[in-house]
Amino acid sequence: MTLPIYIYGHPVLRKMAQDIDPENYPHLQALIDNMFETMYGADGVGLAGPQVGLEDRIFVVDLSPLADEEHPEFKDFKKAFINAHIIERGGELVSAEEGCLSIPGIHEKVPREDEIRIQYVDENLQPRDETYSGYMARVIQHEYDHIEGILFVDKISPLRKRMVKGKLANMEKGKVACAYRIRTVR
User: Fold this and answer.
1) Is-catalytic flag, 115?
2) N or C: fewer beta carbons within 10 Å in the chain?
3) pLDDT at residue 151 in the model
């Protein structure tokens, strides 16, 4: 089932998500499946709980559509991250363009660390402690920020923030059009 994606300005996007009890969470696999379906329907590579109105610490990522000769490691990279906590960040600070399903039509360069170590529970309820670098680390950090109540526009330069201020204000007023189901504040 495709879920509505919550758009910039909705308060749920600014709340710190809470850990869940994955063993007793009602319909957890159905939620994960619905999040993937919603993400695919919106042409995304990641989607977090707050983006579908949940204050739960869960996000999904699928980089397999981006797999090619240069990035074969993306081929089987489809994961659900439950109760994720980044415990280390390092490497170079790299700026790259990002967009977000909750902030449609805006793409900006965002600086992020190039390496992370993250602990989480996977969709099979197995605890994981993994290290990622490069684009994988970037996408995971972007989705992780959502469960921390942080949006990518919080990390852009002050000049760029001023330049997108009008578009963000319109989103807060509910003035936004998307090819996928959305939920605005209004």
Assistant:
1) no
2) N
3) 98
Tokens matching residue 165: 């201020």
Determine the residue type at 18: Q
Domain residue spans of the chain? 5-183
| Annotated catalytic residue within 108, 123, 143, 148 | 143
Query: Looking at the domain covering 5-183, what would its CATH class be?
Result: alpha beta
Pairing verdict, β 5-6 and 182-183: parallel
Q: How far apart are CA 31 and CA 55, in angstroms?
A: 13
Q: Is the confidence at residue 161, as pLDDT, over 90?
A: yes
pLDDT of the residue at 186:
72
Contact 5, 51 (CB under 8 A): yes
Helix and strand element counts for the chain (H, E): 3, 7
